[in-house]
TrEMBL record, chains A, B:
It comes from Cladophialophora yegresii CBS 114405. SUPFAM superfamilies: 2-methylcitrate dehydratase PrpD. This is 2-methylcitrate dehydratase PrpD. Pfam families: MmgE_PrpD_C, MmgE_PrpD_N. Residues 5-251 form the MmgE/PrpD N-terminal domain. Belongs to the PrpD family. Residues 276-438 form the MmgE/PrpD C-terminal domain. GO terms for molecular function: lyase activity.
Length: 455, 455
């Protein structure tokens, strides 16, 4: 009954049922997604996909976010391709949100499908309210994360990219909600999405990794559209003997448990945002170094007076990001030393601080070479202890118990905005602030498509 | 190395390398596919998909076969949707071909992608020769069936629809061949296709079952198109630790063995064709009854003189198709009694003999009621012994050792043509014979798209 229970829960839920904390989480998730999608819109993976697929674009109802820079001309596509391309863009920098319990990046598949569909509805003369959009986003993300929990961790361990395998189903639930489908139709949409299991981890490191996210958005949207025309699948798609959980769960099946917690435990509240565009294990050091940068500014301490920076870190940090002398931005993502250096010197570690020329600059390299990191067995994965020694014998210390971006120390709205602007200004230049204001205004807005049009 | 080995084998193979028996099998496979796709073009599953998805159709380069009856207007779509829709149509009557060792229906995914792509190339001013088309069809089907063998039987047992899970990869190899991609690009195309594992058996009995076949064609085509623009995946997609075989093979991995037999054992030669549009277990009885019909005509024996028809059959026949009094065409597919009756009375068991009015006609029901079937433990699954008793004491006997359509008694070209005409005349009327002539002429034809255009 899990398939129908998800469908019935989604159909019954109204905006007024959402706790304000859930609405806030949805707004923040959408905001972060939009920044990532705009920020990834001119990445070669995204532009290659646009180039390859534009001959197939249908009626241009829906945005390719940041389209002016993809070289696609109109910056529009049919809803299906819009979902695909925006989904790719939102994941391509590995900078999107994370449901930490399942490491699902939940908003990419769902929001990419929803925005494309909202604009397509508008092209048909309908209007999608911001609140309805947020409600659909919530049901999609809840369904997606509950399914992830139901098969965690073996589904991921064996090799499935859990973001896209569950994301297509979340996107189907969300798009069904936006289309006001019945519970039975929603169940069929779940079935059509679930039978398209997209995402092998073997693709990590290639263009196809972010393709997974876009394709899951597209598959979910397609599923809802087919179901809206009464195309049938199975209303037991998830729980049946040869259904989704049994085929891809590798023996783990906690479906009833987690479907039973729908509306009781809200997964979107546990969605976290990455403050820095690099591996999450580096984040404590960057966080501490940015705090030290501020302290040095306040105390008017000279950067060149630094003798050494000693970081005690979780052992995984050295294993995953131990690159001493990175030569470009990509290598720098795997260097705790570069992360610490830009944090200390520049007080920031956004996309601009991972540009090749920054990585190779004397200013950064000279401090980077003074940073040392050693493994501290008892430290948490999001913890670090940093000691800065100055040539005159002074010392500064910083203990980061939980890095910024963790559930304990979530990013503030202001920090999310800084992240947004850092990404989007590289694509939209001065238009980034306007885009940010638009993205924050989703809640209560009268027409989502018009809102996006002004981007 | 399996991924690259398949790619390299495909790139190196030329038409002159194909044994004539392989070319013949490819022509017959294409011919049978085209008949099925035309025959399924006006099925509600197909027309619902067209209705739902036509808003997304891009530039109309490629045919929706039988398009005049789908209500789509032009009968065309972009190549991607053409692959999807024709793939659905070709499988929707469960009347397509079967690679018996894996029960893959191999031609649907591959030919649907290829024809769509061939027409798209023509729209760009290129020409696709019939021989090149057949060569691409062969490499696609070989890759698809070798992969099926590599994970048989557990992959199917656990719940994957093996036709579509392997079909997307076969379609990717075939489309890559038609696009003259390099071995490396072909490997990336295999990767992009393999990461989209489409088809849960739970969907059997719904519209989504044939959607699997169409979607696999579309996914394979898309993979080749992305790879042609150097979109990357993994060149170890099939064999890697978290690649296709390990994730979906359920512990079975005979990849090296079967990839090693490429070009040595030709799977397409083992492709079988269904003579009758119903479960394969009924085929021996139908075959025997059609032979008895001819014998009675020759001996001028009156049908109404029949007292009883006693069939000894494999036990599975009664288990799967034991319906005594079917009320419509769908139920009749699960009735060995109906199959025997139309064989005896009409000498045929094509789609027209499964029309509701035939199933309920007095002519058929009166004979059907005289047919008895009992299980014979020692009979093969494709074997039957039939005894017809007449009221005057006469008897006719027929022993079918291997039913028509088995590898031992393959359908002749004439029988394939009769099947084609029976299906296609229900859609194209008098145009069926012309379509048949066109379909037979693929080998050596100068331009595949023009050939199809005349359909």
């Amino acid at each position: 009954m899990a398939t129908l229970r998800i469908a019935e829960w989604s159909v019954a839920l109204s905006y007024s049922d959402l706790p304000s904390s859930v609405v806030d989480a949805a707004v923040r998730s959408f905001y972060n997604w939009l920044g990532c999608a705009l920020g990834g819109s001119n990445h070669p993976t995204t532009t290659t996909a646009v180039k390859a697929l534009s001959p197939f674009f249908g009626k241009e109802t829906s945005s390719l976010l940041g389209g002016q820079s993809t070289g696609s001309g109109a910056g529009k596509a049919d809803a299906s391709h819009s979902a695909l391309i925006n989904g790719i863009a939102s994941h391509v920098h590995d900078y999107d949100d994370t449901h930490l319990e399942t490491i699902i990046h939940p908003t990419g598949p769902v929001a990419s499908a929803l925005l494309a569909q909202a604009e397509a509805l508008t092209a048909q003369g309908m209007t999608v309210l911001g609140d309805d959009f947020l409600l659909a986003l919530v049901v999609g993300i809840e369904a997606e994360c509950k399914l992830g929990l139901a098969v965690w961790p073996k589904h991921y361990d064996v090799g499935w990219h859990i973001t896209s395998t569950t994301g297509a189903i979340g996107a189907a639930v969300a798009a069904s909600k936006l289309l006001s489908l019945s519970a039975e139709q929603t169940a069929h949409a779940i079935g059509i999405a679930s039978t398209q299991v997209t995402g092998l981890r073997e693709m990590f490191g290639s263009d196809t990794k972010s393709f997974h996210v876009g394709r899951s958005a597209q598959n979910g949207l397609l599923a809802a559209i087919l179901a809206s025309q009464r195309f049938t699948s199975s209303t037991s798609a998830l729980e049946a003997k040869r259904g989704w959980v049994n085929v891809v769960g590798q023996g783990i099946n906690r479906l009833d448990e987690f479907v039973g917690s729908l509306g009781k435990v809200w997964e979107i509240e546990k969605n976290a945002f990455k403050p820095f565009p690099c591996g999450i294990v580096v984040h404590p050091v960057i966080d501490g170094c940015i705090q030290l940068h501020k302290e040095m500014e306040e105390k008017e301490l000279d950067m060149q007076g630094i003798k050494s920076v000693k970081c005690r870190v979780h052992p995984l940090v050295l294993e995953l990001t131990g690159k001493k002398t990175p030569q470009d931005g990509l290598q720098a993502k795997f260097s705790v030393y570069h992360g610490g250096a830009v944090g200390l010197v520049l007080g920031k570690a956004g996309p601009a601080q991972y540009a090749d020329e920054v990585v190779r600059s004397n200013e950064i390299v000279s401090i980077r070479d003074r940073i040392d990191a050693t493994a501290g067995e008892k430290l948490g994965a999001d913890e670090t202890e940093i000691v800065v020694e100055f040539q005159d014998g002074k010392e500064l210390k910083k203990h980061v118990k939980h890095a910024i971006g963790s559930l304990e120390v979530p990013m503030t709205d202001e920090q999310l905005q800084e992240k947004f602007l850092d990404q989007v200004s590289l694509v939209l230049g001065d238009g980034a602030k306007k885009a940010s204001d638009i993205a924050w205004s989703l809640k209560g807005v009268g027409d989502v498509a018009t809102l996006v049009k002004t981007l």
